Structures are given as structure tokens and as C-alpha cells.
């Protein structure tokens, strides 16, 4: 990627997926019958950077796109959201990924990933990383998808090793089995990444991939035993469980919301989590804000452009629910 600029100003650098989300503008309609779509910036790591930027943080993304018009669109969208795109570089010969979804509220949102023959974001190369910028960022965020294929796997682990837990280092467990040639081979790479991270975040399926355990409290303890300082387990309708190595503990129920599209809620949660860690809030306050940010996005159709501002999060928390 390109040479480093002043890196100490970055509150958050994320590394991982980027792409174009094409979401149907009709809800409850099967994809074959959908007649119109909205085009949005997408990709979990990218959405987290956008979410934190909407909360006032200085953020950047490390990723790769195709050298095509969709790649140009993604750069324009990142800049519009105030996210630094200097480490998002093109890969000749590979198309920018596109993701379609179907929207069947409140709990069915099938995803269709078009990442063939290979997604450019899996071509992130360790030799092109600005490792000093990654080390100096106040928070660094990586995802499980980055471990699914080379050279992204080596790059992700190299970035984590160079950072050496010099600050909050978040591993979004981000389990997408369709991205793995052999999903059963994932756990050793997850184990290696956990050795270098201070925060692990995942839902019940994801913590099970990382630890072999599905019961939330047992999985959280296993994540702590694997090396992290803070384990965050998203439990769906039961809310979120967070356990810190120092004994601090929070279990926060979900904020009531009328769900329109659940996709992107986890990324909003992640951006708010990073914001709370940067602010030095206590664990329960961090989790409540993250829950609220996720609920707000779940009430909206899109993902990146739906990420809430801090006043919107505070309003939802004060109301005790996401306003309709």
C-alpha cells in the first residue's frame, strides 16, 4: 500500500472486507421478484470504520478492491463518510465484490456473496502493510474472514504480531464458512490470532468456531484463557455478555426495536464498542451504547449509511427503545 502519513492521529484502523452491497428496495420480496436495488458501501471491517467515524473518530481501512468502477465508487463512499482510504488499493484482474441480500423482517436476511474468482480483499499482502501505522493506531480491528485464505491470512497475523497488543486490538470472529475451502481447518488460525488480540467479539456461532464452546459464559472464559483481556459474546435476543480478565462483568439486554434489516447491526455494535473503549467508559456503558447502535441500524434498510451519530445513540438510550 502507500507510504505512511502521520499515523498517531488514527483512533481506529480496520483491516478486512470491502465491497458493494446491493440491497432490495422492496422488503419481504424474494430476490427473483425484486425490481430495484440501492447501492451501498459494504464489508464488515469497512462498516466498522464507518460506524466509528460517524461517532466522531478518525478512522482508516486496510483493504483492496478491483480496478474497476465499483472500486472507484468505494473510494468515493469512504471519503464521503470521512474514512481514510489511503490503504485501500486496487488488484488488477479481480472484480470488486458485490453482495446481494433478501430482506424478510424480522429475522431472515439471506446474503449472496459474489467474490469470484477471488475477492481482492484476500490479496492484502504483508509486505505492503504500513506496520508502524497499525502499531500506533489507538485501536486496531481484524476479522476472521481475513484468515480464510492467503496472502490475507499471513498479512493479518503479521499485522497482529507487529502490533504486539500495544493497545486495544480487536478480533471480530466474523465466521463466514462459505469463504473457507475447508471450514474445519479454521480453529488453529483463530487460536493464533487470539494470542495477539486484547478483545474478542462474536456471536454464539462464532465463539463456538473459536473455542468449541457455545454456552456464553463458558465460551467467554475460553476466550480469556486463549489470551484476550475482554470477551464479548453477542447472544441475540438475550443481549450481550462481556467479561474482562480483571473480573469486570456486564450482561446487557437488547434495546427494543422494530427490525427492518438486521444486516450491519453487528458492525454498528463494533464501531460503538471501539468508541467506548477509546472514551475509557466502564464496561456496562460501552455495551449499552454498542447495543443501541446495533439496534438503530437494525431498524433501517441500509448498513454503512445507516450508522448512527452519538446523539442518535443517546436518544435511543434515553427513550429505552429505538424510535420508530
Automatic annotation (TrEMBL):
<dbReference type="InterPro" id="IPR023314">
    <property type="entry name" value="Myo_inos_IolC-like_sf"/>
</dbReference>
<dbReference type="GO" id="GO:0005524">
    <property type="term" value="F:ATP binding"/>
</dbReference>
<feature type="domain" description="Carbohydrate kinase PfkB">
    <location>
        <begin position="13"/>
        <end position="309"/>
    </location>
</feature>
<dbReference type="InterPro" id="IPR050306">
    <property type="entry name" value="PfkB_Carbo_kinase"/>
</dbReference>
<dbReference type="GO" id="GO:0016301">
    <property type="term" value="F:kinase activity"/>
</dbReference>
<dbReference type="InterPro" id="IPR011611">
    <property type="entry name" value="PfkB_dom"/>
</dbReference>
<keyword id="KW-0808">Transferase</keyword>
<comment type="similarity">
    <text>Belongs to the carbohydrate kinase PfkB family.</text>
</comment>
<dbReference type="InterPro" id="IPR030830">
    <property type="entry name" value="Myo_inos_IolC"/>
</dbReference>
<keyword id="KW-0067">ATP-binding</keyword>
<keyword id="KW-0547">Nucleotide-binding</keyword>
<protein>
    <submittedName>
        <fullName>5-dehydro-2-deoxygluconokinase</fullName>
    </submittedName>
</protein>
<dbReference type="Pfam" id="PF00294">
    <property type="entry name" value="PfkB"/>
</dbReference>
<dbReference type="InterPro" id="IPR029056">
    <property type="entry name" value="Ribokinase-like"/>
</dbReference>
<keyword id="KW-0418">Kinase</keyword>
Amino acid at each position: 500500500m502507500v507510504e505512511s502519513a502521520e499515523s498517531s492521529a488514527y483512533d481506529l484502523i480496520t483491516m478486512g472486507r470491502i465491497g458493494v452491497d446491493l440491497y432490495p428496495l422492496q422488503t419481504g420480496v424474494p430476490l427473483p421478484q425484486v425490481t430495484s436495488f440501492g447501492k451501498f458501501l459494504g464489508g464488515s471491517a469497512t462498516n466498522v470504520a464507518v460506524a466509528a467515524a460517524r461517532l466522531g473518530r478518525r478512522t482508516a481501512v486496510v483493504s483492496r478492491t478491483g480496478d474497476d468502477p465499483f472500486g472507484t465508487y468505494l473510494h468515493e463512499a469512504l471519503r464521503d463518510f470521512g474514512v481514510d482510504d489511503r490503504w485501500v488499493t486496487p488488484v488488477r484482474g479481480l472484480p470488486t465484490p458485490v453482495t446481494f441480500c433478501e430482506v424478510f423482517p424480522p429475522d431472515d436476511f439471506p446474503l449472496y456473496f459474489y467474490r469470484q474468482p477471488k475477492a481482492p480483499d484476500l490479496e492484502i499482502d504483508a509486505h505492503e502493510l504500513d506496520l508502524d501505522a497499525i502499531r500506533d493506531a489507538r485501536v486496531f480491528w481484524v476479522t476472521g474472514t481475513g484468515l480464510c485464505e492467503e496472502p490475507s491470512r499471513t498479512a493479518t497475523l503479521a499485522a497482529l504480531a507487529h502490533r504486539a497488543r500495544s493497545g486495544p486490538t480487536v478480533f471480530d470472529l466474523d465466521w463466514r464458512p462459505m469463504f473457507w475451502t475447508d471450514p474445519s481447518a479454521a480453529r488453529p488460525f483463530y487460536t493464533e490470532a487470539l494470542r495477539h488480540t486484547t478483545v474478542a467479539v462474536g456471536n454464539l456461532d462464532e465463539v463456538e468456531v473459536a473455542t468449541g464452546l457455545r454456552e456464553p459464559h463458558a465460551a467467554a472464559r475460553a476466550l480469556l484463557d486463549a489470551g484476550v483481556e475482554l470477551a464479548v459474546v453477542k447472544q441475540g435476543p438475550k443481549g450481550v455478555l462481556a467479561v474482562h480478565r480483571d473480573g469486570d462483568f456486564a450482561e446487557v439486554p437488547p434495546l427494543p426495536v422494530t427490525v427492518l434489516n438486521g444486516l450491519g447491526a453487528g458492525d454498528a455494535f463494533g464501531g460503538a464498542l471501539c468508541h467506548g473503549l477509546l472514551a475509557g467508559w466502564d464496561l456496562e456503558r460501552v455495551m449499552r451504547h454498542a447495543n443501541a447502535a446495533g439496534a438503530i441500524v437494525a431498524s433501517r434498510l441500509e448498513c454503512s449509511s445507516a450508522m448512527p451519530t452519538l446523539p442518535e445513540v443517546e436518544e435511543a438510550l434515553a427513550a429505552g427503545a429505538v424510535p420508530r
